[in-house]
Design brief:
globular, 7-stranded parallel sheet, 15% strand, alpha/beta, 6-stranded parallel sheet, 15 helices, Rossmann fold
Length: 406
């Protein structure tokens, strides 16, 4: 009698005390669900450290923890460009991960695509590969960044425009059989891409593990109306569109008692553009890197996410957690969650300063409605059940595995 094959879950990130970092959070809960079904082979992470799980989990190699330590030491001395350092880590992970693939693997489920050697071995053993991306399709993102940088007359190489990393993605993706799109933009961009496999729509969200906060009701602010933005700003974050909207708003309504707070690091290229085009804006305060994001968010009446593309911006959900209404673009995955039921967000097109201006204007003049929208946002976040997405994926994988084992 042949041994039944099982599912191998692999995530580039590492375990944390109760879950996993980044997409390893999904891998953690999915592995837990697969283990309950008796079909988990192993949950592979970059580094496990002292953390344990109720199901089988392993570092990609017994050496990976020490390799990461060594690489980080090197980086502290030589200060590699972040995109180059990330690529180096991905190469190392792939190098180790190959050994985890064997004939007992029924399905390889991954949360990152940069595994050409691992994927090649899986295909040689006729193992289906299913990938769940955190972000829209990489070539789509690259194209958008190049368009935006051309418009702003800046050139910055990052993880999404680094030619070697894009080449690695394109080499890897050809081996993948199925992509699961959990955000609308992720599904749409992979569906429209050159990807030859199957793209499956399974809309859902990786809900952050926030500490419980009870907010009974929010009262409309009658004083200074505070609008906020928080991100590590690159061109794709769309801050320049928010500033353009603010410029329009102040030109039309100088009488408004309203302030804009910009928090987070701003990369050099986009900062030069902002300094050149928006240095004279009134009622704008640049906060730089802030030590306490929740404290910052709680001071706001409206939080703006003007990103051109963003899988599921954490800050939008963090604002919702504190009942802060969110103005967000249609290309952000978090918009889908916050807009459920009675909407907790205002959704605008990307690259549309006029729409951002009009919605801020509306929020300023409809403070009771915007305060209620904040409560709606919190309700939609608090009542969303991530386990439904996890169970949907687990059931889908189980059904696919049955076909392999039968």
């Amino acid at each position: 009698m042949s041994t039944k094959k099982k599912i191998l879950v692999a995530s580039f990130q590492s375990l944390t005390a109760n879950s996993g970092a980044g997409m390893a959070r999904l891998g953690y809960y999915l592995s837990e669900a697969l283990d309950k079904k008796g079909i988990l082979k192993d949950f592979i992470v970059y580094s496990k450290g002292k953390f344990t799980t109720t199901f089988k989990s392993s570092p990609v190699s017994p050496l990976s923890r020490y390799v990461l330590f060594f690489l980080n030491k090197l980086n502290s001395y030589f200060h590699f460009a972040p995109h180059k350092f990330r690529l180096l880590q991905e190469y190392v992970y792939d190098w180790f991960c190959v050994s985890k693939i064997n004939k007992d693997t029924g399905i390889l489920f991954v949360t990152q695509p940069y595994l050409p050697r691992t994927f090649k071995k899986a295909k040689r053993l006729d193992i289906p590969i299913i990938f769940i991306p955190a972000n829209p399709e990489e070539n789509y993102i690259r194209k958008m960044i190049i368009e935006e940088q051309k418009k702003l007359d800046i050139v910055v190489v990052d993880a999404y425009t680094y030619a070697a990393r894009i080449a690695l993605f394109n080499k890897s993706i050809q081996y993948i059989d199925k992509v699961i799109g959990t955000y609308p933009t992720v599904y749409d961009t992979y569906k429209a891409s050159d990807f030859k496999g199957e793209v499956i729509k399974m809309i859902g969200h990786i809900k952050p593990d926030f500490n419980a906060v009870s907010i009974e009701n929010t009262k409309a602010n009658t004083g200074t109306f505070k609008v906020g933005y928080l991100a590590h700003t690159v061109a794709l974050k769309g801050l320049h569109y928010l500033l353009e909207a603010w410029q329009q708003l102040k030109a039309e309504h100088a009488e408004y008692n309203i302030e804009l707070y910009i928090a987070g690091k701003i990369d050099t290229g986009i900062k030069s553009y902002i300094d050149e085009h928006f240095s004279n804006l009134s009622n704008v305060k640049y906060m730089g890197k802030i030590p306490d994001a929740p404290a910052f968010l709680k001071t706001l009446d409206l939080f703006v996410v003007p990103s051109l593309i963003d899988g599921g911006p954490y800050t939008a959900l963090e604002a919702a957690h504190y009942a802060i209404p969110v103005l967000i673009t249609e290309n952000c995955g978090s918009a889908e969650l916050l807009a459920r039921n009675e909407s907790g967000c205002v959704i605008v097109p990307i690259r549309d300063a006029k729409s951002i201006k009009e919605k801020i204007e509306w929020a300023y003049n409809n403070r009771e409605a915007i305060a209620q929208m904040g409560m709606n946002a919190k309700y939609n976040l608090d009542t969303y059940r991530m386990d439904e997405l996890v169970n949907d994926i687990a059931n889908y994988l189980e059904n696919n595995l049955k076909k392999i084992n039968n």
